[in-house]
Amino acid sequence: MNVKDILAQYELYQDSDAMLRKELEHQARLVRYSRGADVLKQGEQSTDVLFLGSGEIRAFLVGPNGREVTLYRLSPGELCVGNILAAMNGGIACVNTGATGAVEAAALPAATFKRLLAGSPAMRESVFKLMSERIEVLFTLIEGITFQRMESRIADYLIERSESDENGETVLATTHADIAADLGSAREVVSRVLKTFKNRGAVDIGRKQIKLRQLDLLEEIRASA
């Protein structure tokens, strides 16, 4: 995958004129990150805006006690709001981001991003749309942490993120710690809830994998927020 292929996945590139697209292609460079690598570190300098081409990037905060809470996950075609804010405020990152697997991206210098954004209404519209969508995601996260029961949130998490495997079973490859980080909770709390689900026959718990046995029961738990 080259820089042009990556940029072509983004609305702000698609909606730009030929001259702006050429400049984006010329100024951006190809970068790669391995699984677990830091992309941004909160409070540190960020010199580029990343356009994700393949893989996934997780944006998260870390509390004083070391507990993590996932803010959102990025897929190809999506920009990181924390990364954009860093580009606009002098390069200081307000979130942490990390690669959840192998990542390939196009890195555009922050100074170039700011200059192009100032001169392109189409680019500004795309960025503002993105920021609006991400703010809605963050509001949903805050609402969940504040008002929903943990049982309901975990049931929702399992249902939304699980997939069918080759045997036709509904499974989610994850760990208790990962679920806790995504939901802003403690691993012990997640483990306790999952044990309750298992005792009720809703799930089976294996090594780095959860099998969903009774979707109807999990739907009932999810609706009981």
SSE layout:
Elements: H1 3-7, H2 11-14, H3 18-27, E1 29-33, E2 38-40, E3 48-54, E4 57-62, E5 68-74, H4 81-88, E6 96-99, E7 103-109, H5 110-119, H6 121-147, H7 150-161, E8 163-164, E9 170-172, H8 176-183, H9 187-199, E10 203-206, E11 209-212, H10 215-222
Antiparallel strand pairs: 1-7, 2-6, 3-7, 4-5, 4-6, 8-9, 9-11, 10-11
Helicity level: 40-55%
Strand percent estimate: 15-25%
Q: Helix tally? A: 10
Q: End-to-end distance, in Å?
A: 44 Å
Helix/strand class: alpha+beta
What does this structure look like?
The structure is a single chain. With 225 residues, the chain is α+β, with helices and mostly antiparallel strands. The chain folds into two domains: 3-146, Sandwich (Jelly Rolls); 149-222, Orthogonal Bundle (Arc Repressor Mutant, subunit A), CATH 1.10.10. Helix content is 47%, strand content 23%. The protein contains ten helices and eleven strands. The strands form three sheets. It has a four-stranded antiparallel beta sheet with strand order 2-6-4-5. Strand 8 and strand 9 (170-172) form a beta hairpin. Helix 4 (81-88) crosses helix 5, helix 7 packs across helix 10 and helix 8 (176-183) packs across helix 9. The longest helix is centred in the middle third of the chain and has 27 residues, at 121-147. The chain is elongated and about 60 Å long. The mean pLDDT is 90.
Which short descriptors sum up this protein?
225 residues, alpha+beta, Jelly Rolls, Arc Repressor Mutant, subunit A, 2 domains, four-stranded antiparallel beta sheet, 47% helix, elongated
